[in-house]
From TrEMBL:
Species: Candidatus Aeolococcus gillhamiae
InterPro entries documented for this protein: DegV, DegV_C, DegV_domain_contain
Highest taxon of source: Bacteria
Keywords of this entry: Lipid-binding
GO molecular function list: lipid binding
SUPFAM superfamilies assigned to the protein according to its UniProt record, in alphabetical order: DAK1/DegV-like (SSF82549)
Protein name (database record): DegV family protein
């Protein structure tokens, strides 16, 4: 049982631990390499096998898995379920079907499925503000309102070591990926409001870190505290250096560094690094971290 009024359901891409007694349920995303399922904590194994040329696939949790997560959160008035965009994953569809099944059986708690416009650590930051508000005793309306504003405000920046893996997903044309890799050019990207664009080009790891530092200095509102969430894919040392650079140029209220979950890492490939930033509101409770 939990004393919170609003429970939270996310998938493993949010990099939050399941705490049913704390009002938080996590639905597992599935990764398959070579016919075998890979545990979501086995990110190192994923990158070793990707480097060997093994092909990886991901599959969406079923409506039944989301329904089971909703049913585990007892004693709350409402449940907020966050997903990444429907165009990238079937999680929103599965969660929506499960919410309908749940409502057919009971009136309380209510279930709101929110399709966020972002993914990876930006999605993780939206999940954390929702979780922090829930833990502080906020009601459904307050949590949903802050989730919507966080979706509008959160920005993510990063760079991949190669476009090979994301090209396999069809999200980047193979020809573009091949030319980029042949020229040893690494686009530094921004994800905001459902769109993705290039903000810089770099050729080396050091160049990537300099570009990300410059982006933080120029694009994050000066003097306003931000929650930062850094990510890496088998590149922990680069994430440490990036954190030092960001702390030097940003007003940071809280920061956290995570290794990308395998379900994301199979698309980024090894070597990805970057961060997401969310401006802090005066009414925000302290950040929830792992």
């Amino acid at each position: 049982m939990t004393s919170r009024r609003v429970g939270l359901v996310v998938d493993t891409g949010a990099a939050l631990e399941q705490r049913i007694d704390g009002g938080r349920a996590v639905v597992a995303m599935h990764v398959d390499i070579g016919g075998a399922s890979i545990d979501n904590s086995a990110d190192g194994e994923v990158y070793v096998r990707l480097r060997r040329g093994e092909k990886a696939t991901t599959s969406t949790p079923s409506p039944g898995e989301y329904l089971a997560a909703f049913e585990q959160l007892t004693g709350v008035e409402a449940i907020v379920c966050l997903t990444i965009p429907a165009r990238w994953s079937g999680t929103f569809a599965s969660a929506t079907v499960a919410a309908g099944m749940f409502r057919d059986c009971r009136d309380v708690p209510t279930v709101d499925v929110v399709e966020t416009p972002t993914a990876a650590v930006a999605y993780g930051l939206v999940a954390r503000i929702a979780d922090a508000l829930g833990a502080a005793g906020a009601d459904r309306d307050a949590v949903l309102a802050r989730v919507r504003s966080a979706c509008d405000e959160v920005r993510m920046y990063g760079a991949l070591e190669t476009l090979e893996y994301v090209a396999r997903s069809g999200r980047v044309p193979a020809l573009v990926a091949g030319v980029s890799d042949a020229l040893h050019v690494r686009p530094v990207f921004e994800m905001h409001g459902g769109g993705t664009g290039r903000v810089a080009l770099a050729r080396t790891d050091a160049g990537v870190l300099r570009a990300l530092e410059r982006v933080a200095r120029e694009r994050l509102e000066p003097g306003r505290p931000h929650w930062l969430m850094l990510f890496h894919a088998d590149a922990a040392e680069r994430a440490v250096e990036l954190r030092e650079r960001l702390l030097a140029v940003c007003d940071v209220a809280s920061d956290e560094t995570v290794a990308l979950a395998p379900v994301i890492g199979v698309y980024t490939g090894p070597g990805a690094v970057g961060f997401a930033a969310l401006p802090v509101h005066a009414t925000d409770p302290p950040a929830v971290t792992q």
